[in-house]
């Protein structure tokens, strides 16, 4: 075959090519992200619609059923999952694998626009959000202090969340523990009854006096100017001074029947750390981001805020948990298994071959094949995760098998007294068909797995892709680097006539092992 012939006849050129491939793999290694599992691109869209004051039954009938009827006819829908809870409807639509989520979201938006008039008047505009299944929570941080829950939440949402959001790779920062601050009008039922007023009267007055509307334009010689009626309340005193009715020919102001406060919305969840009120941050990475790099960036930003004293007096940031340690430990364990497998394979080879040079040739081909496989992983945008590292570990056996067969056949030609270059070229060429057939069976098995489009397939595709890449790379290395190293390290055996072959000290040392192996084979 031309690969083995070129490798023996032009070893410098082929060695240079292999070095280039190794350098490409080394340079691409830092660009491969680290994550726990492979990216699972499941096209999913979430539709939310708020309807304040409505019960789950009302939301199911008035909103969920109508939205389901509107979107159920869209192409590519696999599952529709609906949830009706108090004040809110959630409809999750999962599409078939391979569906363009952007196009699906546009189709859903057009379908909702057609039924907007059919939804209740009090319902808010439905919102559409694409769900990235790879955007997972990587860290949780708490803000604690001697402030109220509302103050902590307000500062966390306005200031600290923006600081964490600017970290490269962070997709979203979710804040829990309270809600957005807003103005609350707390009516006194007894005072309303005494003033002969109802809640609807107060609500109508607030709606009539808290408006901001464009009134048109004023044209003059050289241009025009927009005119807007600005009726927004500017401060609490204006709200309290709002006239809401009359009683016994006297004006009744809002301050007479209600208390105006600035506080959070209805609190449905609270966070505490060691009994202290707190605001909780859930930091979510982008789907394609490197989880370890994102966590390290968040940690650096966290340390910078604590060290530089950026927090107000009485507030403290607490690092609660992150997934970086678990992910890194899983990846490190997989790497250690791969290294252990390579070392054990080399030791086992040495026990049978009794040749340090041939063992070195086979052993050096394994890490080189793994490094070149990094380029394949970067090309297909695979990450280092449990599945890809497991595939690399499983491929170690394939990597070593090809080189062993080549080395064994080269040794046969050397035993016949052929020159080393002739033995390397002929020995490699004779087994190319057998080695290729053996290795390509893995390719035939795993290529169909790479074409899977199911949810399980999204987990198995990286495994199969790495296995196929490592197998093809090992074939190339065994047909090029192995004969080159054989020409450099191995020597032609000299014929001694009828004299018995003299045992080397290694053969003498492993004589009990060989006798035991021969006995076992009988």
Model description:
The protein has 522 residues and is of the alpha+beta class. The chain folds into four domains: 2-38 and 327-495 and 502-521, Up-down Bundle (Multidrug efflux transporter AcrB transmembrane fold), CATH 1.20.1640.10; 42-132, Alpha-Beta Plaits (2-Layer Sandwich); 137-180 and 270-322, Multidrug efflux transporter AcrB pore domain like (Alpha-Beta Plaits); 182-264, 2-Layer Sandwich (Multidrug efflux transporter AcrB TolC docking domain, DN and DC subdomains), CATH 3.30.2090. It is built from 17 helices and 15 strands. The protein has helices spanning 2-9, 11-28, 56-71, 101-114, 149-165, 189-194, 199-209, 236-240, 254-257, 291-307, 324-353, 356-379, 386-415, 420-450, 455-489, 505-509, 511-521, and strands at 44-50, 77-85, 88-95, 127-131, 137-145, 170-176, 181-187, 212-220, 223-230, 243-247, 250-253, 258-264, 271-273, 276-285, 315-322. The strands form five sheets. Strands 5, 6, 13, 14 and 15 form a five-stranded antiparallel beta sheet that branches. The chain has a four-stranded antiparallel beta sheet with strand order 2-3-1-4. A two-stranded antiparallel sheet has the order 7-12. Helix 2 packs across helix 12, helix 11 packs parallel to helix 13 and helix 14 runs antiparallel to helix 15 (455-489). The radius of gyration is 36 Å and the shape is elongated. The two termini are 37 Å apart. The model has no long low-confidence stretch (mean pLDDT 82).
